Amino acid sequence: MTEEQGDPRHLETLDRDLARFSNLETATSMVARPMVGIGVSLVFVLLAGVAAMLFFGQESNTLIVVIAAGLGAYMALNIGANDVANNMGPAVGANALSMGGAIAIAVIFESAGALIAGGDVVSTIAKGIIAPESMGTASVFIWAMMAALMSAALWVNLATWVGAPVSTTHSVVGGVMGAGIAAAGFAAVNWPTMGTIAASWVISPVLGGAIAAAFLALIKSRIIYREDKIAAARVWVPVLVGIMGGAFAAYLALKGLKKIIKIDMPTALMIGAAIGVLIWLVMIPVIRKQSQGLENRNKSLKVLFGIPLVVSAALLSFAHGANDVANAVGPLAAIVQASQSGDFLQAVSIPFWVMIIGAFGISFGLFLFGPKLIRMVGGQITKLNPMRAYCVALSAAITVIVASWLGLPVSSTHIAVGAVFGVGFFREWDAERRIRKARLAMPDRAHYAPEERRRRKLVRRSHFMTIIAAWVITVPAAAILSATIFFIISAAMG
Q1: pTM, two decimal places
Q2: DSSP 8-state symbol, 380
Q3: What is the pLDDT of residues 338-363, one digit of tens each?
């Protein structure tokens, strides 16, 4: 070793150089990660096109179907990146699931829901948004559906980039409406249906938030604020898990298994009640055993809600896969049918290969781009623990059942995010109530100043305003984008 190499200053310089190299490696990997996601997504879109070519054969409109399959794959990727966060966010935010565990469960159950129980028939044009006969020809109908698919996918992509969970169903509805207006004028739109969809923008989050807040109030009053929390939990947690099990059983019977068996509302509610009572009876000894040796404090209660929360996330994913995938790939299925037979007036059957594109696209989108929205829903709107996340998951199931009973079209995204807001705003109200009560009991004691209380708000207002704005403009934005794309396609093909 030379004198220079043995010099401590030389070693310090070497350490600094190695540290810089390490930082450079980290920075390179951070830059490369989004590029890897985009690269894998492009490969998947191309594979979807190849699959369409193989399944569709040598028909005259093969190129159209190949392009549409690529757009359908792009839409499915965006559903995975944006929509699935609503089911997994609360469980991840409450630390009941790791990010990796959440993605694994969602991939399995979303795909299972899409392939086992995915809707095999959708109405001709996205639930009667526009009159199909107004399209005139099959070619015009195909261009309209392609414009709708592309605009919906682009809008959900933009919303994910901004960090706003939006309804993919509403994006498709807006896309279909915009293309329909561009193709056949305002008279083609079924405005009463659009009116009920617009009403659901308000009804879904308000109902979801109210139900979640009501259950959080019940948990606080019956368990958290009791002297002996563990004894109270032994009584109430089996009841709450039973309610959750019953609600999910009814929800899946009603919405998740439509393809396998048709079940009406009264039958679904009876199934839910029977399973709920059974789960309640099973959970009594389970919770008694789990609660042995637990300290009498709030932190101990989190253990008792962990497993129900994981199960609820899985069931929500299954039901989401069964319902929302069909909505997303509906326009692709309509294009396939119109291209094959020229018929665009009848109900559309979704081919199995189209459902596979939807299911795998959601899985890839979630794996590659989902964590951003999962973190936002789970931890950046308001702080969630297992009890609060339980209220969000239960609210999602109950709200869908209530909405179906009332005949209201609702968005699973709006319900879940509305439930998170409901939990957060209830916590704010409850904290204020307790501060006022403490002030009355001990007027001489120092309390938080109004400015400090405002700073301690439990719901982040910036996220609240961003998400509400994204919800309000989803349908009109997707409609304008779709109309623009339709005019471009028409001009190119004309």
Answers
A1: 0.82
A2: I
A3: 887 777 767 677 788 888 888 889 88
